Amino acid sequence: MSDPATSIQQLKALAAHLRDRRDAMLSAWRRAVDLDPALTTSSTITRNQFIDHIPAVLDAFESRLCADNAAETAHALADEKAQAAEHGLHRWQQGYNLPETMCEWGHLHLCLLHELETYGASHPEIESSAQVTARRELVRLCSNGVCASAARYTHLQQAEAASRVRDLEVALAQLQALEHERAETWREAAHDLRGSAHVIVNASAALERNANPDPKRAQFSEILRIGVASLNHLLTDLMDHARLEAGDERRKVIDFDAGAMLQEFCDSVRPVATERGLFLKTEGPLPLQVEGDPVKIQRIVQNLVLNALKATQRGGIRVTWEESGSEHRQQWMLCVQDTGPGFKAQSATPIERVLKQATVEAHAVEERGQREGQSSVHTDPAPTLASQSAHLVRELPSGEGIGLSIVKRLCELMDASLELETAAGEGTTFRVIFPRRYG
After folding, report:
1. 418 and 281 in one domain?
2. Helix, coil or strand: residue 333
3. 20 to 30 A from 357, CA-CA: which of 28, 31, 57, 265?
């Protein structure tokens, strides 16, 4: 009959033997895994990464063999499960799939079983009860390891799936917001087109009245001409916007004098500012040799300056340009600053809010102009172009939202950043920072 005290001492001796043989067992385990053609991930990691938490698992296993009471056994068992779960986590992070991890546990089980059998064969005095206990604890070790690893894998897969669902929800929300924004852009463009068409219809109807005196017909002809020009400009903007959205625009980078181009453009627009009682000042180095697409850069400054002219009632616009950046990052900056009412936004970002605000304010201004224009057509027996209406429509395009949206997309095409400083009643400053050289 076996002696319990003797069995406990034999199990402690076995635990000490396993501790002494640990490096050999771990090496045998690595060789067995390397020889398994179904396991390939282990060949891509170092020995320390391969061994991972297994020494801590074996420490807990040996502690269970040496436990003198139920409390020590329970503590060792809990530690063994925790370390096995951590091993499963690291195997996940190392790129293992679950079957590979389970196979590795199987090879570890066989290596430990071989060590137990070798020890039993070389120690015939060991009692059968001690051998049974050791084998039972080994089976429990591998069972706990497999279960803990599988549980951790399941938890990680669920967490990853939940994260993907959240990412998809965010992406869907962003897509919906983008579609809504795009729909709003086209709706606002349609509003602008309808407004311009309404002016044209009213002016055409007035011209058809033969009773109108020649001066009056001349005024209606001017309204008609300006309405057609505005409509044409809006259609051009919409076509440009559509091409940019579709990715049909390509930048054509050449070396050119940005300073001369900006100065020439501002000189051509200055008469429009003067007619409105505004100043248009320029400042910047001449020449300023840069690389870029001069057509698209002129389109950017044109939209910014014309929007500024339309929004500004007193003061004027300042257009400046200068070199910027560092020795390793050569850049140049274009700045368009006005003394207009500014946007009702507390910060410069995001630009999209400013685009929406610009469009809303443009509609309000245009509707006021249309009401005054309609009043002239239908009720005034001797209509004249009111000064405010003339300023509103004089060669300046409507639809600031479309114009700024084009600016934003052109900046993206030119690898340029768009910055904004604005406050209600304090004017608006747009800064566009361009690369001076393209690789």
Report:
1. yes
2. strand
3. 265
Tokens for 402, please give them. Answer: 């479309």
The runs of H, that is alpha helices, within 247-350 are 258-275, 294-311
| Three-state secondary structure call for residue 5 | helix
Q: How many structural domains compose the chain?
A: 2
- Tell me the C-alpha distance between 343 and 92, whole Å: 51
With 90 as the cut, is the pLDDT of residue 365 above it? no
Report, as an integer, the average pLDDT of 199-216: 57
Q: What share of the chain is helix, strand, coil (3-state, %, to 5)?
A: 70, 10, 20
More confident residue, 331 or 374: 331
Q: 68: burial class by Cβ within 10 Å (0-12, 13-18, 19+)?
A: exposed
Contact 237, 268 (CB under 8 A): no
- pLDDT band, very low/low/confident/very high, at 398 (cuts 50, 70, 90): very low
Q: Are residues 223 and 155 in the same domain?
A: no
The CATH number of the domain holding residue 419 is 3.30.565.10
Cα angle: 310, vertex 311, 315; to 5 degrees: 100
pLDDT at 358 (0 to 100):
46
Q: Are 245 and 133 in a shared domain?
A: no
Distance between CA atoms of 43 and 45, rounded to whole angstroms? 6
What is the predicted pLDDT for the residue at 362?
45
For residue 193, being part of any structural domain is answered with no
142 closest CA partner among 106, 101, 97, 103: 106
Residue 164 shares a structural domain with residue 276: no
> Cβ distance 331 to 313 under 8 Å?
no
Which range marks the domain in which residue 420 is found? 209-435
141 and 236 fall within a common domain: no
Q: Is residue 411 located within the same domain as residue 316? A: yes
**Beta bridge mates, 435:** 331
| pLDDT at 118 (0 to 100) | 92
Residue 245 is encoded by which pair of tokens?
């959205």
CATH number of the domain enclosing 80: 1.10.490
Both 150 and 224 in one domain: the answer is no
State the CB neighbour count (10 A cutoff) for residue 208: 8
Query: What one-character DSSP code corresponds to residue 397?
Result: P
Cβ(366)–Cβ(195) below 8 Å? yes
Distance CA 193, CA 96 (A): 60
Q: Is residue 197 part of a domain?
A: no
Judge whether residue 337 has pLDDT over 80: yes
